[in-house]
Amino acid sequence: MAKKKTQLIPPWGDFNPYLLSHVFSFLPVHDQLFGPPCVCHAWLSATLDTLFHNSVLDLTMIDRLKKKIQRLRFTYLLRLAINEYHGWVSIYLPKKYMLGYFGMVYIAEKTPMMLSAFMPCDAGLNALAVCISLPYWKKLKVFRARLKPSEGLLVISQLADYCKNIVEIGVHGKMTMDEVSCIIEGFPQLKILDISCSTLCHRALIMIFDGKLKFLRELNILHCSIYNDDGKVISHPTTHVVSMKYNKEMREKASLLKSVKVLHCLGTSCQHYRKKSLRNKNLLSH
Hints:
- The chain is an alpha/beta fold.
- Helix content is about 40%, strand content about 15%.
- The strands form two sheets. An eight-stranded parallel beta sheet has the order 1-2-3-4-5-6-8-11, with no helix packed on it. It has a three-stranded mixed beta sheet with strand order 7-9-10.
- Helix 7 (about 150-160) runs parallel beside helix 8 (about 175-185) and helix 9 (about 200-210) runs parallel beside helix 10.
- The N and C termini lie far apart (about 100 Å).
């Protein structure tokens, strides 16, 4: 009697890891955290690839976790991911649940190849959390954050001291002359400067227009509130109106930046300005 051929079922851990990661991405967040990682090491690795992929440490997911046990589990898996892979190049910091001092130091020590750091634009930056990381991120090229008035200069000066390769900065909030001066003096290789939706003195803006940033290719000042020496607002994002005196002065300075693409609310480069102009034309035509 012929023996029956037995079908060999491959072990669970032998499944294609890319396929596993794709399947796990469709699971609810809670199941991703507490399900597949507990099966075997291969499934744990696939889960880490699902949560942290393309060399990006996206920590914003922790803001969407409502239960403390979920957040603890996420930080545990984060630690495993950092220890398993050493090629992290971008980090997105959370808005609500900022990691503590030792947590940020641990992440920074393990990610010396970091090239980009992002903080949600609708959240105030925790200066301590970032400042303790910058000495480890000396290869950083891109930095974006919303700065608190009391911490902006500290963060920018720390960035200038340790991160000499910065080519793109996006800082938003109430900016002082000292902060703008620190950006100009501290980042001579800067190519992109985004200070959109910020509040600053017109003299600070003119300082940027003076052309000391020789490599600057793009300047974004969309929807900025600009005030004069007396503290009077001369440009506001809801009106897009600048007094003729300051408008002319800033336009003359901006015109000197011939190789720089300037995005602003002083003309047709602003979408809101175009909509308002079109609306005014329609009213006049009636």
